[in-house]
Amino acid sequence: MSAHHRQRPWRRPVLSVVVIAAVAASTVAYASGAEPPSARGGANGGTYYDGTYYDDTYYDGAIGKTGAELKNALHRIISEQTKLSYDDVWDALKATDEDPENPDNVVLLYSGRSQAKDTNGGGANDWNREHVWAKSHGDFGTATGPGTDIHHLRPEDVTVNSTRGNLDFDKGGDAVDEAPGSRSDGDSFEPRDAVKGDVARMILYMAVRYDGSDGFPDLEPNDEVDNGSAPAMGRLSVLKQWNDQDPPDTFEKSRNDRIFTIQKNRNPFVDHPEWVAEIWK
């Protein structure tokens, strides 16, 4: 672990208060062994969080729809959000990806390693901000919007992040050092089994959230690799399989709740993974 540990100050006082509250609430849930509120069913089988049935409120305009109508309805819902700066992302990830067994650490996405929060940076053994939808796919960089949307930004080891680069997602390849269970080859990256569904749902969230109507590229999944700078990510057929094989777990549901506290929008495919098949038939 790098000797150059750096703790960055909170940049936005309001955000810090909200994040601390979210961490405290989730820590209590983990400590008691209970699932976070989002894991419990509502009166109609919908998502329950903090006393609110989200199918009756947050997702009200989407319930009963399918295909393009469902996608458009979800876009309108999740586009109402608080936008963070790229500096804000450091501190947000320390809350959203906190290790439930060690509140001083975050869990790295592909590596699965628990690492001290204050080791974020650019050193070889630091963790940095991984764009799961590679920022070069659409060339949005770190612009406020898709470049800072914490639904697809995750802590990852600097070296592993570099190995993943801007590769599309698919099966196969060689084992990735420092990321047990992950594999990569010349045109694709395969994450470890425990987060395959997480990756799929983050990619598909981005495709619904950023449709070209807000000055950013229209992001869409396709069934290809080697997408380069096109605003596309693949491989869709594999992502759909991963969504089915690896349903949302307690960590992913809790992360969605924490992001809702910070960013004020949700990943609908964490709450309703079945909507993936309804949109991408």
Describe this structure in words.
By secondary structure, this protein is of the alpha+beta class. It has nine helices and 13 strands. It has helices at 13-32, 67-78, 86-96, 158-164, 196-209, 236-245, 250-263, 268-271, 275-279; strands at 48-49, 52-53, 98-99, 102-107, 114-116, 127-131, 153-157, 168-169, 174-176, 179-184, 188-190, 220-221, 232-233. The protein starts with 12 loop residues before the first helix and ends with a helix.
Cα(first) to Cα(last) distance is 45 Å
What is the succession of H and E elements?
Answer: HEEHHEEEEEHEEEEHEEHHHH
What spatial form do the alpha-carbon principal axes imply? globular
Count of individual beta strands:
13
Q: Uncertain segments of ≥5 residues (pLDDT<50)?
A: 1-44
Largest sheet: 4 strands, mixed
Tell me briefly what this model is.
By secondary structure, the chain is α+β, with helices and mostly antiparallel strands. The chain has helices at residues 13-32, 67-78, 86-96, 158-164, 196-209, 236-245, 250-263, 268-271, 275-279, and strands spanning 48-49, 52-53, 98-99, 102-107, 114-116, 127-131, 153-157, 168-169, 174-176, 179-184, 188-190, 220-221, 232-233. The protein starts with 12 loop residues before the first helix and ends with a helix.
